[in-house]
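fyi for ur records
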Amino acid sequence: MTDQTANPASPAPAAPHLSRVLGLVFGLAVVVGGIIGSGIMRAPGVVALGLHSVPLTLAFWAAGGGLALLSAMPLVEAGASVPQAGGSYPIATKAFGPTAGFMTGWLTWLQYTSSNAFIAVVFGEYVHRLGLAGGVSKGALAVGLILACAAINWTATRVSGGSQSVASAIKGAAFVLVAAILFASPHAPASYHPADIHPIATGAATVAAIIMGIRVIYQTYAGWDGAIYFSEEVDNPQRNVARATFVGIGLVTVLYLLLNAALFHVLTPNQIAGSELAMGDAIRVSMGALGDKVLTGIGVISLAAIVNLQVMAASRITYRMAADGVLPKFLSQVAKGGAPQLSVAAVAVVSAIFAGSGSYESITRIYAPWSIGSVFMICISAIALRYREPNLPRPYLTPLFPWIPIFAALIQAVLIAIVVIDDPASGLWSLVVLVAPLPLYLYFTRRRVG
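which gave:
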């Protein structure tokens, strides 16, 4: 008989951790699905106020994609060097220490939760526009969407990742269908001027309109950094994060050019200028009122997919911060299927509170500088890591270093300045929000050291 007392104790089973079960297709779905939203349906009207030429407008949209690619280069370098979940948080922590990392992670997380609330409420408005759920308030519909997305992300990483891949594919196919419908449409008569369209600005006002158009184009490409939030779950992240980011931006650029070309097939810049929903104005030429239903239905799918993605991404920030000990440790618990369920729940609860209370509107204005600041932090982190840790493995190297990261960082800095100048009060509050959680951070870090 074996003497069991003589045997060493069996090691305790390892705690579940994030599962590396996602592939390149998921990475592409995150980038493409994260970028494409309702912005492309609204942005052309703003752009047309400053750019009156079809070739020039298409050139600016192409340049927007190129600018996103340049900005993505330092992100991919830093993300491949620090392949951890949580996006900009672990990168900033590696480059500038835990305090800078904590503030970056906190603001990015707040951005996602408040953005979830805003997008979910717009989802409720779109559902009502379809004539559905008229007896349910848009706030209740918003909370329902958030909870539904949380339920999907609660199950398992394969399920949540698969849902995002399917949703992004449907969304992309829907916008290609819109382009096909517009190319098949007749040209609108010269007398066709949709309601609420403003006259094209001239003189000095045109300069401001051009600047606004450039800003809107760049913002319409926002979301291309999504793949780095899942570096602990994507297979071979050192290669696939780069592939997903660059290929995803390229695909979206082609789609945006296709949609704009299709739009100009139906309407002239003069007819588009100032429109709040240029794609809707164009599709009504061939489909009438049905066109509104088509675009609204696409909007419902698009918004739901973005909320699902943001719940998934924000929970990875919470997980990584908790795993590092700067948030309560229980938030780093992972279920057998790889889902950080308590982190998902935390994101859902806060997002639902914002959506139900209406406070998301003020918070959305406050976080605006930091939605850009997250990319700025990654750009300067890539520069800092090159000099501070030259031996850090770098599967991808940014060309023309350090000029491209410096250029990308300056672009983000200028955009932050524009946002703050445009709304100084919200800019001041964003600074308050930045430092507000520092006592919490100090509490958990001291407790961990003790």
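The CA atoms of residues 32 and 248 lie 5 Å apart. thats all i got for now
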